[in-house]
Specification:
The chain has about 150 residues and is mainly beta. It has three helices and ten strands. The strands form two sheets. Strands 8-1-2-10-9 form a five-stranded mixed β-sheet, with no helix packed on it. Strands 3-6-7-5-4 form a five-stranded mixed β-sheet. Strand 6 and strand 7 form a beta hairpin. It starts with a helix and ends with a helix.
């Protein structure tokens, strides 16, 4: 087998969050939309900003900065909502700005070092270095699924 056959190519959507760069697998992204004021829901976790109407569908929106334990950001007109679909669950992720789409192979990704407490889910699945920029690849399953279980 050649090297080309053993490493798979993936595309990532990179975005800014609290002056840091993160990314998601482009295959989980359904759309990117401008900031829309949310309707808050009672008893929701603090990182859940509320819900918006997405063409007749009620879409929960989370502040990804706060969800990741970063300093919550002030919402401005420049914020965007990345609509993701994970296990048929649609969720809006509020981020500061979308950067670009990058194509990588598995060989470009490195596992993150074990640095968090054992009870915290590992939300970063891997890291990559592009032009001296360290980009964190988020694991959607540890972000979105735990939101749904908290809401239930």
């Amino acid at each position: 087998m050649s090297e080309k056959e053993t490493s798979t190519s993936i595309e990532l959507l990179t975005f800014q969050l609290a002056d840091q760069e993160y990314s998601l697998d482009i295959m989980s992204v359904r759309e990117i939309r401008g900031w829309t004021r949310t309707t808050p829901l009672p008893h929701a976790p603090s990182y859940m900003k509320g819900v918006i109407n997405l063409r007749g569908t009620v879409l929960p929106v989370m502040d990804l900065s706060e969800r990741l334990g970063l300093k919550p950001q002030k919402q401005t007109e420049r914020n965007v909502i990345i609509v993701v679909n994970h296990d048929d669950i649609m969720t809006g992720l509020l981020v500061d700005a979308v950067s670009d789409i990058i194509a990588l192979t598995d060989d470009d990704l490195q596992p993150p070092p074990e640095m968090q407490s054992s009870s915290a889910p590992n939300v970063v699945s891997s890291l990559t270095l592009i032009d001296e920029r360290m980009i964190r690849v988020l694991d959607l399953s540890s972000i979105v699924v735990s939101v749904q279980s908290n809401a239930a």
